[in-house]
Each structure stands twice: as structure tokens, then as C-alpha cells.
Amino acid sequence: MATARAMSVRRRMGAMVSIGALTLVAVHFGDGLTRWSHAHVGWRLGVLALIGIGVVLAVGAFHLPQRLLRRGWACFPILYLVLVSTWVLARSSGDDEPSVWVLEPAAVGFAAVSWAWRTAVGYALIAAALLPLSLFLVDGSVDRQILLRAIIHLGNVAFVVILFAIDTQLRALRGSEREVERNAALAAAARSRAGAHARLTALIHDDVLTALTLAMRTKVVPESVATQAGRALAVLRGAVAPTHGRPGHLHADLGALARDHGLQFVAPLETTRMVLPDQAADALVAACAQAIDNSLRHARPVAGATTVRRRLRLTVEPGRVAVTVEDDGSGFDPDDVAPDRLGLRDSVLARMRAVPGGDARVRSEPGHGAVVELSWVGPVAGHPGPGTGGAAGGANPGPHAGSRISGLATPAARVVLVLVWTTGAVQSALLWHTYPQPAAIGVALLVSLAGALALSTPTDDPLPWRATVVAAAVAPVNALLFLPQLGGAPGERAWLLQTGAYLAALLMVRGRTWAGLASVGATAAAVAVWGGWVGAPAATVSAVLALPVAATAVGLAWSALLRRMLARLTAHRRADAASARALAAEETALARTAAELLTIAQVAGPPLRRVVDLAATDPPRALTAADRMECRIAEAHVRDRLRAPALARTRVAAAVDAARRRGVDVLLLDDRAGGSEPADRAGPADPDHRADRAGLLEDGFTLALAELVDAQEAGSVTVRLLPVGRAVFATVLRSGPGGDERAELDRLGREAHARRDSMASSEST
């Protein structure tokens, strides 16, 4: 399993927090060097160690052992608390606040990754209060700026809620992966079983019908017939063991077929190393054998030729294998093949089309030879080039579509964002007297609250556009309201400007990357204009932009990670639905095939077992006339179930068996296969077509049909169910000493038309 697929949820979360920590270090590194240049050397070494841990965790997020990562995640918040609490002792006279304070969001994030959510929330509160508390214990007072900043730091508890919400969604992602894997495994197993039964169904023609036909035409059972009967019994018991895929398996089996039947075998060298799934390889070999047998039986030399040249060709290309049986014999018109001829229809065409990715085509004209092409599309091991696997085509929705992976669409996230806004409102209230126009600050606070509420709209990601516009407008609107009141020294009053940048960064996390970038870009442009207007130093402008830039970088990084995760999640949802549908369809097909095989075994098993038992006696005993009759009845019944299963499953079957025992030849045909309309084409008032499509036969029809068959004492009876849409549901042609009689029945068994003819050839349906 790939590394990314096996990656734990905690590792993903740690990677997100590590990237955020690295971004904070990069943005604030220069300012931090200035602030800590006079601090105690031991404290500075501790800060370097903290930064080193963050860098190692970010660089090794996807490669280091999980145990080592967990220790690093737990060490970071603990070392951060030690540094913040000891800063009051290690500071120099020029330090106004610890440079490490900017890493508190990362420390809170690592706490959320390492510990339970209650512990992480408690840590966030302690981390925000620790600096003013330590200052109060050492100095007996707390600087006003530190106190105001500490109030803002209380908002870091939002990271805990958001991270745990994302954690919940990521665990759902992992659960979805496991469910997809489980469904895929079940679907593959069902496919394998369904494929095996499909092969067995084709083998009914190759083995069961052949054995019964040979048995009903002989008295003393030769060894070859007994062997054929034993193989047929093994088929009905499902005892045909599939071969395992191995290099050159298909090449070797096809080569053996060509040698045994005198065909020229053409195959490129690379096919000797090719490995195909068992189901595909076995189907290709079995269908090829039947195609060769058909050619040997039916292809005759054309005028001017004395022999028929036959060739077996194996070709392979990226993602596709083709096996072609060619002859230059008399050819035929594929459309003229009678529907009761099962060799081409079932053992070649249907056998290949029953395999996922399999197909078969026949090209032939009278007098121009015949070409049977068998193909399978899928990944071919041992041959370069891509297979055809992968997600189904079609439009791929946005990676955030249909999810809440950002963690911001929950009631808890909304409550926390409002609490964070409250801390800013308290700070603004404490600084109210410092603003030239307090009313504008009040408007900015309301705008910020509206943005927080819009950002936490409880809908799937991406955020709806109306809420996106509201959240994106917070940063530029606040800049217009706030910057004119700053003068040249924003100080701690810059919170309202920074909160808009935070909301823009979270917009990116909710799937609206361009809206978030546009919001931050508009804010940066406003700050640049403000700096030029008031003549603020470049350092002041950079300080105002530092946190918005950091928030934007973190938002971009988190958004990229979430996009990758969501792309997989949506793909897994589609794959899960497809697997579930395929699993249900294959299980249904498997159940039907198993039931059909069981029924055929009940009919064909006893006479086949009788053949084997008689051949095993010493000396071998001959088949009686009754034994041969049972073989004939069983052979005909099996053919009925393949050619007209709807008729073979009704009370008509008993009448047909009785007629055959009287010497009547009965042929059942169903022309409705492939001719039914889609289920939505017939309305509720169209019961006739509904019955046709469902394959159900009315009791009145089966009763009338059984009576017609029972009335035939000699000759033959041909029953044909006509294609859907015909005015007549079925025709019954009875041929006897007195001539032919043709009856046309409707769906309820009522006779629509009847006539007597003197020749059986009048049957024209």
C-alpha cells in the first residue's frame, strides 16, 4: 500500500500544523532576531531548539517514523510553555515581549494533535494566560500591551476546535478508504466467482451437452464418452479448478491449441512474459478453442483451393490483448447463424463478453473466409504501457465539493469564532478612547462578526458564494474603516486588520482560494497606500502585514493539503458507490447462475452419473433404450434452458418432456433477448410490455401452450416467443402426419390466428 494511503490521520494533522509552524518561523524570524538579541543565552538556545523541532517536524512530516513524530509533537508545546514562563527571567531591558510568543498558534496546534481535546483546550487557555501571569508574579504588574495581546491569544483556542473538526473528517476519510477497500475486495471476489460461473455456463455447451449427445447415440459406452461424462459432472459440481496467473500462461496455452489442431501460431516475443488475470486468460483460451473447433467443422475450401489455411494470432499492446482465429475457407454470414446454434453465440461471444473488459467480434462473408477476434482490455503485467484502470471518466467536481473537511461548518466552529471575535471586541473596548472615530470601529466590529458567521455557514465545502463575498469583504472594508485612524503607530490596535486576514485565510481552507487571495491582496494594497500617506517606516508597514502574510501562507498550505485529501475522498465516494452497484449486480448474477447450474445439475446429473457408473463396471455394461432416452430428454432440457429459459422454467417444461418421451421433437426459442425496451419507455398503462421486459409469462399463456404441446402425438413442435413490440406474443408450429398447423397466441394465451398448411416450411417467423 502506498505511503500516502497508509498515512495515519494523526500524521496528516501533524503535517498541517508543522507547515503552519514553519510558516510562522519564516515570517517572524527577522523580527525575532531583533527582539531576542540581548536575552539570556540559555533562553535563546531554547528558542533555537524550539525552531529546530518545528523545522524537523515540517520536513519529516511524511517520512519520519510515527513514534518519533509523536514525541516531537508533544515536546513542542511543553518547550514553548517553558520558554514563555522563563522569559521574565531571561529578558533584557529592551525587550517588551518574548519573540517566541508568535509561535503560540503552532504550540496550540501541536497540543491538539498530541492530546485529547479537553487537555488541548486547557493548554490553549494556559498558554494565553501564562505570560501576563508570570509578569505579575515577578514584577507585580502587567504591561497594558501584554495584557491586550494576551486577550487576543485566547482566540487560539479556535485552532483546537478547527483541528479536531478536521481530525473528525480525516478519520471519516480513512474510514471511507477502508470501506472502499472492503467493497473493492468483495466486488473482486464476487467478480471472480461470477466469472467462474460464467465460464461454467459456457462449458455446459462444451462438456455437458456434448456428453449427453454422445451418450444418447451409443449403446456400449466407450472410454472417451465416459471421460466426457466425468468431465461434465465435474463442471456441474463446480469442480473445475482455475489456473493461477503466471508469466506466459496465455502464450503457452494458445501455442498448445495451435499445435494440437495444426494451426500456424503467430505471437510476438514479449507475449512469453505476459501475465493476465486468470479470468481473462481462461476465457480467451476457452473461446479460442471453440472458434478453432467451429472453423474445423464448418470451413470448407473455396473454389480452386484444396485445403483451408488457418492461423492463430496473439497480439498485445498497452492495456489490450487480442487473440485472432483466421481461416481462408468458405466463410458464412454471421447474421444467418441460427439462434439455436450455441457454439458461436454462447461459447465464443457470450463467454468473452461475460468477462469484465472482454469482447468478441466475428468478420466473415460467404467465400471470403472468417476472422474471430477475441479481446480483453485491462492492465497487462509483463508488458510496458498503461492499463485502462482508474476512475471512471466524466467531470470531476471541485475537491471540496460535498464535504465539511475544513472543520469550519460545525456549530462548535461558529461558537469558537464568535468567542474569538469577542476577545477582539473586548480589546477594542479597552482601546476605545484611542480611536479618533470610535463609531467606525464599531462598524468594523460588526463587519468582522458578520464575516465570522458567514465563514461558519453550516453547509458542505466549498463555502456558498454569498457567504464567501461577505467573509472576503471583511479585510478590505476593515482596512478602509481602520487605517485612517491609526496614524503612524498601529501598535496593538491592528487586531481588526488582522482578523480580516485570518478570515481570508480560512476562506482558502473552505475551498475559496481565489476569494481569500483577493481579500488579502486588497488589504495589502490598502496598507501600502496608508504607509505612503502617513509616511510610516517600512518596518512599521511590514509589521502590520506580517500576520496577514503568515495567515495567508498557512491558509494556502492547509488548503493545498485539504484539496489533495478531498480529491481522494470524492474519488473514493464515487468508487464506493460504483463498487456497491457492481457488487450488488454481480451478487445477483452469481445467485441466478448458481441456481441455474443447480437446476441443470438436477436434470443432467443422473443420466451422466449412469453413464459413468456403467462404464466403470467390469465388463462395461451397455446403455439401455431408457438410459439413452433419459440422456436425450436431459440434453434437450438443457438446451431449452439456454435458448428459452423463460419457457423452461414454467409448467410447459413438463409437457415438453412428456411429448419428447412420446417421440415428438420439441424446439423452444425465445427471440426477446436484447429486444426489450428500456424500463422508462413504457408507462404504467402498458402491462403487456412490462411483462415482456420482466420475462414473466402469464398463467393463461403457459396453460394454453402446455395444452398445445400435450395434443401433439407425433412429428414436431416449434414454440417461438416473438420480439417485444410485435402484435403476436408467440407462435406455435405443430407438424405431423396430417400437415402443419400454426397458432398465434397473445400474452394471455388467447389464440389470435390459426391456419393449417400442407408443408412445414410455411413457418416464417
Automatic annotation (TrEMBL):
Biased composition (Basic and acidic residues): 739-758
Domain Histidine kinase/HSP90-like ATPase: start-end pairs: 282-374
Gene3D superfamilies referenced in this protein's UniProt entry, alphabetically: Histidine kinase-like ATPase, C-terminal domain (3.30.565.10)
Region (Disordered): 673-692, 737-765
Pfam family, one: HATPase_c
UniProt keyword list: Membrane, Transmembrane, Transmembrane helix
Transmembrane stretches, start-end: 42-64, 71-90, 120-139, 146-166, 412-432, 439-457, 463-483, 514-533, 539-562
InterPro entries (UniProt xref): HATPase_C_sf, HATPase_dom
Name the UniProt record assigns to this protein: Histidine kinase/HSP90-like ATPase domain-containing protein
Organism: Occultella gossypii
